[in-house]
Write a structure and sequence with these properties.
By secondary structure, the chain is mainly alpha-helical. It is elongated and about 65 Å long. The protein has helices at 3-27, 32-45, 48-51, 53-72, 78-93, 95-99, 105-128, 133-167.
Length: 177
C-alpha cells in the first residue's frame, strides 16, 4: 500500500470513528427522559448511590426536572430534539473530508474549533444554569476527547497534502503568441 493510500485509509478510519461518536451523541438526545429513567435505575442497581451520593442526587434532580418538563411543558424538550438534529447535521458535514480530505480540511478545523468552544460554554453557561462544576468538567471532556481524533486527522491531511503537492507535476506556463 502506498503512503498516500495508507494516509487516506487512516484519515477515513478516524473520521468514521468521530462521526459514529457524534451520531451516537445526537441520537441519544432524542429519548432523553426515558434514557435518564433507565440510567438512574441502572445506577441504583449498581449501588452507585452508596459510593457517589452527589452524582445520584444530581441524576435524581435532573430526572425530576425532565419528568416535570415532559409532563407539564413538553415543548421544552423540543430543544433537545434540535440538539440531536444539530449533531446529525454536523456529522453529515464530515462526508466532505471523508471524500476529499485535502480540499475539505476546513470541516475538520471547524470541528476542532467547535470542540474547543465547549470549554468556555461549559464554564460560562454551567454556573448560570446551576450545573455542578464536576458535571461541567464531564461536558468539557467531550471537547477534549473530540478534538483528539480531529487533530490526528488534520495532521494526516497535512501529510497527504504534502505528498500530493510533491507528486504533482509542475504547472506549464501558458505561451502567448
Amino acid at each position: 500500500m502506498s503512503d498516500r493510500a495508507a494516509l487516506l485509509k487512516g484519515i477515513r478510519v478516524w473520521l468514521v470513528l468521530f462521526v459514529v461518536c457524534l451520531v451516537l451523541s445526537g441520537v441519544t438526545a432524542f429519548p432523553l427522559v426515558h434514557e435518564l429513567r433507565w440510567g438512574e435505575s441502572l445506577l441504583r442497581f449498581l449501588s452507585v448511590p452508596e459510593h457517589l451520593p452527589a452524582l445520584m442526587d444530581w441524576i435524581e434532580r435532573v430526572r425530576h426536572g425532565l419528568d416535570a418538563a415532559d409532563r407539564d411543558y413538553p415543548f421544552l424538550l423540543y430543544g433537545t430534539d434540535w440538539l440531536a438534529f444539530a449533531h446529525l447535521v454536523i456529522a453529515v458535514a464530515f462526508y466532505g473530508p471523508y471524500r476529499d480530505p485535502v480540499r475539505n480540511i476546513w470541516v475538520v478545523e471547524f470541528g476542532m474549533i467547535a470542540c474547543a468552544g465547549i470549554v468556555p460554554l461549559a464554564l460560562v453557561c454551567g454556573p448560570i444554569r446551576g450545573i455542578p462544576f464536576w458535571w461541567a468538567v464531564i461536558d468539557m471532556s467531550f471537547g477534549a476527547f473530540g478534538i483528539v481524533p480531529l487533530y490526528v486527522v488534520r495532521r494526516k491531511i497535512k501529510r497527504l497534502e504534502a505528498l500530493t503537492t510533491t507528486a504533482a507535476p509542475p504547472a506549464v506556463a501558458a505561451v502567448s503568441g
